[in-house]
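Standup notes
- HV: blocked on the assembly model, inputs below
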Amino acid sequence: MERMPSREMPIEVGRATFLILSGLFKKIVVANWLATHLADPVFSWPEIYSGPDILLAVYAYAVQIYCDFSAYSDIAIGTGLLMGFNFPLNFNAPYFASSLQDFWRRWHISLSTWLRDYLYIPLGGSRRGTKRTYVNLLVTFLLGGLWHGAAWTFVLWGAFHGAYLTVERIVRGWWGGGASAKSAPASPWRVWLGRIGIFHVVCFSWILFRGGNLDTVTAMLQGLWNWRSVVPTVAFWNAWPLAVVLVGFAMQFFDGDRLWRVWHRLAAWPSWVLGATAAVVLTIILALGPEGVAPFIYFQF
Amino acid sequence: MEANKDKKQGVPLTHAWTALLVFYVVALALNAAALHRNNERLPYGPVRSFWVAVSAPISAVSQALHADRPRAVLEKTVGASLNKN
């Protein structure tokens, strides 16, 4: 049973402050900017944009949904810490995953754990033979897709993830499924190629997820092959869009306990210095953000 | 060194509350004018009247102390450049 916080319980104020402020930065500055300047316009009228701009908008949406949802989780975890509750991690640098299975161990961990414990394992998991394992994976991800909403695009998104995980499992069985192969570490170039490949696989799935309807998804996919834009003055590949996408992507370095030394140093600061610094950082975040803040993407699910 | 990673670096509750109190006071001083502007944009009604009445004196104090300047400068420079359409 979870122990209630008491007056004697030490509060992880350094980690809490860091999580709340980095969450606010991800949401107010990065996610809102990417939504209003890149992802929303392109997903609303994909027909008028060129392939490179659509590609950048897809990258932007990948970073936006990560920054938006991980911010939501970080702010909740940080606020909980201030009240003495320690909630588990929900994101752990998902776009650094080298396989889709690895991605689902890092993305929305609370949902993927729930799907595993309450759908995949009760269906039999991997204990009832190879074919049944593949069926269980597909069913679990189809239902995981439907959990997001009653739309064909979510069904397709779930089916794509389930099918890709199944193929990944089959290929792993062919190429390196033996016990000896498991213990051998993969070469760095193979890991990086895997990371880049999986990032693009996930980006493709975000087109299905964000599209909203099959017409938009089709227009986005067709538009990727158009070199020229209908409106020649529209071009996203310049300094600010690239900088914000890269900054949002780099925010993954803050996930997990990668910066535990920073938390420890913050916790050692005098209370008033920590409070005043947090207020100054918040002011900078608010000054950089646009007027008004869009609701979190996951509020709709 | 790795052992330190697992060790939670907590502070007593009173220290956390002090940090929180200082945070609210400083954040309010630095952002009172913007907060007041937002309250003025609320739909007319008792809610707007209440929040405008609360934020007006705080904003006046903040402006008298020039505590609103850092945010205003940041908004006009980096913020405006970042958020222009």
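- HV (later): unblocked. The mean pLDDT of chain A is 88. Residues 13-44 of chain A form the longest helix (32 residues).
- Next: hand off to the docking folks.
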